[in-house]
Amino acid sequence: MVGVPNVTRADASAVLRNPLAFIAARWTPDPRTVRRAALAALVMSVVIVVTGGAVRLTGSGLGCPTWPKCTEDSLTNTSEMGVHGVIEFGNRLLTYVLCAAVGWAIIAARSQKPFRRSLTRLGWAQFWLVMGNAVLGGIVVLVGLNPYTVAAHFLLSSALIAVAAVMWQRTREGDGAPRPLVGKAVQQLVWVLVGVAALLITVGTVVTGAGPHAGDSSEVPRMDVPWEDVTRLHAVLAWVVVTLTFALWFVLKAVDAPRGPLHRTRELFLVLLSQGVIGYVQYFTSLPEILVGLHMLGSCLVWIAVLRVLLSLRERPGAALPGIPAPPAQAYDATSASIAGPR
What we know:
Elements: H1 9-17, H2 19-26, H3 31-57, H4 82-111, H5 117-142, H6 147-170, E1 179-180, H7 184-210, H8 227-254, H9 259-284, H10 289-311, E2 314-315
Antiparallel strand pairs: 1-2
């Protein structure tokens, strides 16, 4: 039997003053634990989007007609509310699971040795995005599922996914200055790809806000835009993203880029291909709920894949220790100095 150490008054005071510092002083997680914590936060940020889509597609958006309680008299759903109440309240409960995942990521990052302030800040950024989206979700309910607030709810979730993806990537890197693996021209092409992908997702929220899936069994106002026209615009933007991805892959092959950017670009192309198939099938089959849900999942995966392409264009070695210079960047021959750049 191992004795439990006594908790002194000073220990209790330290916990109250700064619980994260107290934990960090007594626990050093394995780097794999930090990576898994960041990945768990990323996975949960995608899960909460998918379950939010399930709330909408089952007409359960007002299953709990008020917020923060489920009804005026009950914090939880009641049997009289039926399946819609169960689905909506279940999605609210998953917010606590998301908070737990983000909290674990923050604690793991804060406890890592040496301390990495940038990693911890990414964890806290997720926390505040979750809190902001929880409040916005309450506003969505209180205004009767106004489509513009629903769209903002989804876009804020996309911002959460972006921060979570960056944190996951940063757990596998050092804190040294980033070293580009490709030249300026390739970087600019990828930034254009990121911008168009963000626009694609934004227009996708308009397609949903103007389309038939209102999120409630009763009549809910839709965005006053021509649904067919905005759907065509969404499809055009999707083809632009596919074209840019295809062009990027050829450019990377032409300049003999490292395997990392090539692999990430290939993964993005495969995700886009799957998402495109789902998109066209759902369009020509009158938007069945299951395919719309899969399309929402695909939207999250496309966004993550695009960000991974962007993050693969540089490497970040470990920061130099005092008195010890950081290792020099590895030199490569480049087909074109302006395109290939240092690798």
